[in-house]
Fold CoA transferase.
Amino acid sequence: MSKAPSGPLKGLRVLDLTRVLAGPTCTQILGDLGAEVIKIERPESGDDTRGFAPPFWPNTKESAYFLGANRNKLSVTLDIARPEGQAIVHRLLESCDILVENFKVGALAKYGLGWEQLRDRYPRLIYCSITGFGQTGPYAPRPGYDALIQAMGGVMSLTGEPDGPPQKVGIPVADLFAGLYGCIGILAALNHRRETGQGQHIDIGMLDTHVAWLANQGMNYLATGENPPRLGNQHPNIAPYQEFPTKDGYIILAIGNDPTFERFCKAFGLEHLLADPRFATNPKRVENRQLVTDTLTPVMRTKTTREWVEALEALKIGCGPINTLKDVFADPHVQARGCVVEMPHASGETVRVIANPVRLSATPPDYRIAPPLLGEHTEAVLRGMLGLSEAEIAALREKKVL
């Protein structure tokens, strides 16, 4: 069927009832770490993201979006709204360790596949639900969308220029963080099951995870009771820590403490600032951030971005260019770290995917299955795992269960 799994989760089997991004991110990580992931998709249409295009991968009908979150998975088409489909899910669950789903609250219960309906029958099952607002609370029935969660979770109020409108982050961070927290919860539940033999339910709400990663800005509010303002690219607690224009573009300058600021000033003819109490300490620089910006901007314009990077790196002062994605994937460090992986795809093309960043010395991530075609593994799973005959599979296809 495919190359045998390897990695720290080798031997675990995951039933993946997720679509779009939060759930598939979670299950892709599990697959990268060696779990066998069986992705259940709707017959004919499949995961919604198969249609999130353009762009498609060149010379294929596969969306780049789908390819980014679905490697190391076996695609099985199955209509779980049909009793025959539900029966197949139950047969798969007999050998599954983990179920991950991101249906609306209560939706799977209609098919007899909710946590409360499965927990006694499969006591070792770890059941992870990822929804917009979690399983409880007044918003639980609402659908969750990344931009909506970014708005309701506060990050949009913090992102953008001070005089501009609120801005969402340029990638779907609400989805991605929910998937990451889901994976963390599953790994914790696996350890608990190892100790007790018992599975459990993991309730991941995108809004919960979004509030959790408000981090220093959330704590700034809790400490003061005041809403942090939008600061553009400036740091709320450190100055200067922002973008500056250079002779030919922009650079990020990240001066994290007073000794570094002193080193910066002495190297570039700004010693007089060290005697000015408005610049002497980080709290004062934060208090006078506009003065700091106005003072350093003409200085930063005197060199090109490359010249600044070379000069600042020699002094061990944090800095970096503001790269486009073309720059990112051409960066020699990104290439040296193997951040892109090539995989042979069932279409006959080679696809490139963004690598898993978890670097394990003994059990590294395993890239064994390219993102699958819709239903690519249906027959192999039904025959190999469940022992269905060709006639039984044909009958299911005739009924449009598969």
User: Anything to note?
Assistant: The radius of gyration is 25 Å. Residues 241-321 form a domain with the formyl-coa transferase, domain 3 fold (CATH 3.30.1540.10). The chain has 17 helices and eleven strands. The mean pLDDT is 96.
